[in-house]
Specification:
290 residues, mainly alpha, Endonuclease Iii, domain 2, Endonuclease III, domain 1, 14 helices
């Protein structure tokens, strides 16, 4: 007699957890259950590699060990520390989220999905990550690595709703912290964009197995290659914010600082000011951090 669906699921869960036990990657934020520390790590890891995040996470937690410490600091201080991580909107959103946590939740990161999703810059993955990794609730997360595994496992491109549902169905209840970390590590180390299928503990359960068109391409949540950084608006914006971290910059000097034509520099400055990432003083024609 064949295995029942429940037995099959248990075997699949045991296969991943058994594979992960001696292989789980060690990161400093995996040793804490502090919801603020977890939230900071998850925001930093959005679109930024682990190697760049580790020293910044340590420095950030030393400077802003709680939501209140972050909220009571200026956005400029947060942006200065954020230098090197890119995408400064994340720093702005994290600073704003800290303010909401202090004003509406007594300085404690909330433990409900609804309240977490209401925080600036917190989406479905980040909210569930806080619930699973800080509060250890039975919640399944779907990051880009997990999304890639799920698409290949099912042999089809998935919608966001179907990807989350598939993750929920696989969740090993009572072990959500370890389960989600193991699932992410499987995608990060084995089921990579170019996978090592023979090494996969889920090879027997996979509908794709490396043959034919990769169903992860175009599937919900699976990251795509970023545009070239050299010569991009992101690079120019980063140059200016770095300069502002050291002091004010005259508007007339912005094209030189950004290394961009004047019309491009003006457009980028307008965007930065509108986003609250820079402040223009019209009386002195200078820019500064908030």
């Amino acid at each position: 007699m064949g295995r029942s669906l429940t037995d099959e699921l248990r075997v699949q869960q045991d296969a991943l957890l058994g594979w992960a036990a001696p292989r789980l990657r060690e990161f400093v934020w995996r040793s804490t259950r502090d919801p603020w520390a977890v939230l900071v790590s998850e925001v930093m890891l959005q679109q930024t590699g682990v190697g760049r995040v580790i020293p910044k996470w340590d420095a950030f937690m030393e400077a802003f060990p709680s939501p209140r410490a972050c909220a009571e600091s200026s956005l400029g201080d947060v942006l200065r520390l954020w230098q090197g991580l890119g995408y400064p909107r994340r720093a702005r959103n994290l600073h704003a989220a800290a303010g909401v946590i202090v004003r509406e939740h007594g300085g404690v990161v909330p433990d409900s999905l609804e309240s977490l999703l209401a925080l600036p810059g917190v989406g479905a993955y980040t909210a569930r990550a806080v619930l699973a990794f800080a509060y250890e609730y039975d919640v399944a997360v779907v990051d880009t690595n997990i999304a890639r595994v799920l698409a290949r496992l099912h042999g089809e491109r998935l919608t966001p709703k179907r990807a989350q549902s598939a993750a929920d169905e696989l969740l090993a209840e009572g072990a959500a912290w370890l389960w989600n970390q193991a699932f992410m590590d499987l995608g990060a180390t084995v089921c990579r964009p170019v996978p090592s299928c023979p090494e996969c503990p889920w090879f027997e359960f996979c509908a794709w197995r490396g043959e034919g068109h990769d169903p992860a391409v175009g599937s919900a949540g699976v990251s795509v290659a970023q545009g070239r950084f050299e010569g991009s608006d992101r690079q120019a914006r980063g140059r200016l914010i770095k300069a502002l971290g050291e002091g004010t910059v005259r508007v007339s000097d912005v094209p030189r600082v950004m290394d961009r034509p004047r019309d491009v520099a003006e457009r980028l400055v307008t965007a930065l000011v509108n986003e609250g990432l820079a402040v223009l003083d019209p009386t002195t024609s200078t820019l500064r951090l908030p």
